[in-house]
Specification:
The complex is a heterodimer of chains A (199) and B (338).
Chain A lengths: L1 H35 L11 H13 L3 E9 L2 E9 L5 H14 L7 H4 L1 E8 L4 E8 L9 H18 L5 E6 L2 E2 L23
Parallel strand pairs in A: 4-5
Antiparallel strand pairs in A: 1-2, 3-4, 5-6
Helix pairs in contact in A: 3-5
Chain B lengths: L1 H13 L11 E10 L3 E8 L5 E5 L5 E6 L4 E3 L11 E9 L2 E8 L3 E9 L4 E8 L14 E7 L9 E2 L2 E2 H16 L5 E5 L9 H10 L4 E8 L5 E5 L39 H16 L7 E3 L10 E8 L4 H19 L1
Parallel strand pairs in B: 1-5, 10-13, 10-14, 14-17, 15-16
Antiparallel strand pairs in B: 1-2, 2-9, 3-4, 4-7, 6-7, 8-9, 11-12, 15-17
Helix pairs in contact in B: 2-5, 4-5
The chains are: A alpha+beta (199), B alpha/beta (338).
Chain lengths: 199, 338
């Protein structure tokens, strides 16, 4: 009989130990998962799903630095400009070209001074359509060199800052045009020309 | 595409008389020419496709184009052409029946025709055959040099202290012609000899019709430095991502063999010659042996079927000296590089 009692007490102790061990492991795992998830709602820290949009919002308010290409001394020169950050490539590209036309360094070039940006679209194939119009109601007057550098200032600014943009079509007043000032062919898509850039 | 074209041709030719327009005959609204190195395309723009007959003249020097049934009517003037394959098109009348005579040069080879619909056109392609025995060697023929003074009419180009670009460009072209005329190897043609508006395509058409071997477009810029440009063919629709034109007026499928030969692609066949011409002009204008032409996508050169370059001289430069330099560059190209 005493032998039976001893065995029963020993079995109960083993069971109690197993229960305590299980509770300890479960508690440890719970604490670990809780800490990985960023704490409880009571602590005041936002949950993971709330935190991501807030981070993006903060980044959108920061300006984006783009490289502008503008005519200078018979070549294209590089210069940086801070532009308002936009949520998509098309809007960002529009912002970059608007910044080019507004830039004092670029507006020294006759052909860029005489035009303004109407619209800019990017299609799924990576072609940016840049719709320009004369800033005053008169034709754009420029030499071949001025026209060439003005056109590639736009093309290089777009293709070098946005990898989604592979080529550029320039339109005038919403329509396909043969040239801007009588020389450079705008009837085809244009790709970047880095040989025109001052090293 | 070829199958479709063949089908259209077959249908138009085999259509029963009842299916054809009630009014018999063929009305030609206009005739257009397109000169390529290997062939000349004559396009008869017709009011409505109808059966036609094309036969060779007995002497083999012409093609007769007439309506199969009824009268042929021509509604516009015939443009001039002389491109080494076709030497002209005339409207003739015989026994009350009008027909068009396409006069062929000795170099003309086989001819083939087909019909395109919407708008209706009858297209005649005449290939360049082998030169007949006893023909004069090319070296003895004068080289046709076309000088193209830029701008004109309302488009004055840029304005400097010495006047408008259109006026200075014409002045320089006339001076270059004077210099080149001293050399009997050259026949010099100007796209304009007076104050006149011309489109870029008109200028190329004048050059192609004149059978030019050398084409030099003349422009001016502020300052004293001169530059030379040649056509940049790298963006000419060859890239995989490039958007092909939406379809030319002939309705060819974009990217097809025919598309590659339509108007505006002629310069592609002269890339090497234009590079050599551009280099010679740059060397003579800059007075430096290592001077090179700059490649640029130029709307005024792409339809020119000849070695072609564009010069931009400084408005402050002396016109006589610039003319000597340009003529010198042309002469050296003709002597050493052709």
């Amino acid at each position: 009989m005493p032998e039976t009692t001893d065995r029963s007490i020993r079995d109960n102790r083993l069971l109690l130990g197993a229960i305590i061990f299980f509770i300890a492991v479960a508690s440890g795992a719970g604490i670990y998962l809780w800490s990985r998830m960023g704490g409880s709602a009571e602590s005041g820290t936002p949950a993971a799903e709330d935190r991501l949009p807030r981070m993006q919002l903060i980044r959108l308010t920061e300006p984006l630095t783009v490289t502008l290409y503008y005519p200078f001394d018979g070549r294209l020169a590089r210069g940086e400009a801070a532009v308002k950050r936009q949520p998509d490539t098309q809007s960002q590209a529009r912002e970059a070209v608007a910044s080019l036309f507004a830039d004092q360094r670029a507006s020294a070039a006759a052909a860029l001074r005489d035009v303004k940006l109407r619209e800019l679209y990017v299609d799924a194939l990576g072609t940016a359509y840049v719709d320009l119009s004369p800033s005053q109601r008169k034709d754009v007057k420029a030499s071949v060199e001025e026209e060439l550098l003005a056109v590639y200032a736009v093309v290089n600014t777009l293709t070098q800052n946005f990898e989604e943009i592979r080529q550029v079509r320039i339109l005038l007043d919403g329509k396909e045009a043969q040239t801007l000032a009588g020389h450079v062919d705008l009837s085809r898509p244009l790709t970047k020309r880095m040989d025109l850039v001052k090293q | 595409m070829r199958t479709v074209v063949e089908l259209i041709v077959l249908c138009s030719l085999l259509l029963p008389a009842a299916a054809l327009p009630a009014e018999k005959g063929l009305t030609v609204n206009g005739v257009r020419f397109f000169s390529y190195p290997a062939f000349t395309r004559v396009v008869f723009e017709v009011e409505a496709a109808a059966p036609y007959v094309i036969t060779k003249t007995p002497d083999g020097h012409g093609l007769l184009f007439r309506a199969y049934d009824g009268r042929l009517a021509l509604k516009s003037a015939l443009p001039p052409i002389r491109d080494g394959i076709v030497s002209g098109v005339e409207l003739r009348e015989e026994a009350g029946n009008a027909y068009l005579l396409v006069r062929l040069d000795p170099a003309a080879g086989e001819a083939k025709d087909f019909v395109l619909r919407g708008p209706d056109r009858i297209v005649l392609d005449i290939s360049r055959g082998s030169a007949p025995a006893g023909a004069a060697p090319q070296a003895d023929k004068p080289l046709v040099v076309v000088l193209d003074p830029g701008h004109g009419g309302k488009d004055g180009g840029i304005t400097g202290a010495r006047g408008e670009e259109k006026t200075l460009a014409l002045e320089l072209a006339l001076q270059i012609r004077k210099n080149l005329r001293k050399d009997q190897r050259f026949t010099v043609v100007l796209t304009r000899e007076k104050e006149q508006a011309l489109s870029l395509d008109d200028r190329a058409a004048i050059s192609n019709t004149a059978g030019a071997s050398i084409f030099v477009s003349i422009h001016a810029a502020a300052g004293a430095g001169g530059r030379v440009y040649i056509e940049d063919l790298s963006d000419d629709g060859g890239g995989q991502t490039a958007q092909p034109p939406r379809g030319d007026f002939l309705g060819f499928e974009a990217g097809s063999e025919q598309q590659a030969m339509v108007w505006g692609r002629q310069q592609a066949a002269h890339a090497r010659e234009s590079g050599l011409l551009g280099r010679r002009l740059a060397q003579h204008l800059a007075g430096k042996e290592d001077a090179e032409a700059v490649q640029a996508p130029l709307a005024g050169l792409r339809a020119v079927d000849a070695a072609a370059a564009l010069i931009e001289f400084g408005m402050e430069q002396d016109i006589s000296r610039t003319a000597e330099a340009v003529a010198g560059g042309i002469e050296q190209y003709a002597r050493d590089d052709r």
